Amino acid sequence: MLRWIRTTLWAKLFLSYLIVILVSVLVLLVAAGLALPGAFNRHLLGMDEMMGKMMPGMMQGMGLRYGERLGLLGGRTPLFLSFRGAFLDALGLSLLASFAVALAASLLISRRLTAPLHALRQVSQRIAAGHYSERVKLPSNLSEPENLDELGLLAVNFNQMAEQLEQTEAMRRQLIGDVAHELRTPLTAIKGSMEGLIDGVLPAEPETFQQIYREADRLQRLVLDLEELSRVEGGAYSLKRKLISMEALINSVVQRLKWQFEEKGVRLTVNATENLPLAKADEDRIGQVLINLLGNALQYTPEGGEVRIAVTKQYKEIQVMVQDTGIGIPPEHLDKIFTRFYRVDKSRSRAHGGSGIGLTIAKHWVEAHGGRIWAQSEGEGKGSVFTFTLPLY
Q1: Beta strands in 214-324 (DSSP E)
Q2: Measured in whole angstroms, how far is the alpha carbon of residue 5 from the centre of its chain?
């Protein structure tokens, strides 16, 4: 019994209400017992004085002096004992009725208070078992959040947490499926080429080995990107911030990628505002962001197109904009473009060898510096603009 009371919340609440009721009854009885004689004497004395004024000769005719009449008021006279008995009888009946009503009200209130918590416990157990679609029933006055009590707000916050867990689980499953698919594609190509070489279907020529090497290289890049994404999302990294010139960093990245743009026939230009302040950032990480954005622009810009980089100061930020004249992005895809493995055109992206992770990594690195990154496009065939900012320190 004691263990049940210790482990059951509504029993604790009910017991606390019961204790309050019993203490209140005890205080009432003690206070009434202490106050009753004095109150009785005062009221009788007042009646005696009133009777004396109204009928001054009546009490003297009874042979009682004033002091003797006062003696009747004190002590345990029959009149007082009778009055006290009547008072205690009435008080006892009143207390019994009040106690019964208070007991029923305490039981009802305790159950009503603990019912949402009981439902919350059941739903949390279901979620812990892997049923992430479970939700707590919300109060009927949810349309007016200011009227919600603590239990109502707890239910709302719990459902928000459950929704986040469901989304995380869905993303985890999608990630496993995407990784399996991404790994399957180059592995299938490598296996098919090796089987062709073994069976003599494919000639053992440099072109065949170069094809196998390209698929193996693609597989290696995917694994490296996954490792990088895992570190970034898990927070297992440290930023080596220092004052850097964004113009110098961009020129350095442009020199590294210049030959790729020239090979494809895409023009690359840089326009930087004069006297740009230095930014405090990790040079390697921001360099990787630029490489990912420029590589993405080069990948989707056809021959004869152009990629422009613009660097400006906007209030207390350095803003870097990478604009291309490529295939563009449909408006409905803009808010998902930084999601890992997300592709506007899956088949075309795989043909170009993209892993679908570069923009996700770029987003994490920019946000790790306290900046922002977003994409803009007027639609298919109208190019796209990727912009990120870094705060000035």
Answers
A1: 241-244, 267-272, 279-282, 306-314, 317-324
A2: 33
Tens of pLDDT, residue by residue over 166-220, are 877 877 787 777 778 777 878 888 888 888 888 888 888 888 888 888 888 878 8
Tell me if 175 sits within 8 A of 341, measured CB to CB.
yes
Q: What is the pTM of this model?
A: 0.56
Please name which of 298, 245, 305, 241 lies closest in space to residue 273, comparing C-alpha atoms: 245
Report which of 8, 77, 86, 85 is spatially closest to residue 44, judged by C-alpha positions. Answer: 77
Q: Look up residue 159 and give its two tokens.
A: 């459902």
Answer for the pair 298, 264: CB distance below 8 angstroms, yes or no.
yes
Phi-psi region of 114 (alpha: psi -120 to 50; beta: other; left: phi over 0): alpha
pLDDT category at 310 given cuts 50, 70, 90 is very high
Q: Which of 292, 313, 269, 260 is nearest to 366 (CA)?
A: 292
- What distances in angstroms separate CA 384 from CA 253, 272, 349, 379, 388, one per listed residue? 20, 19, 16, 8, 14
CA 5, CA 1: separation in Å to the nearest integer? 6
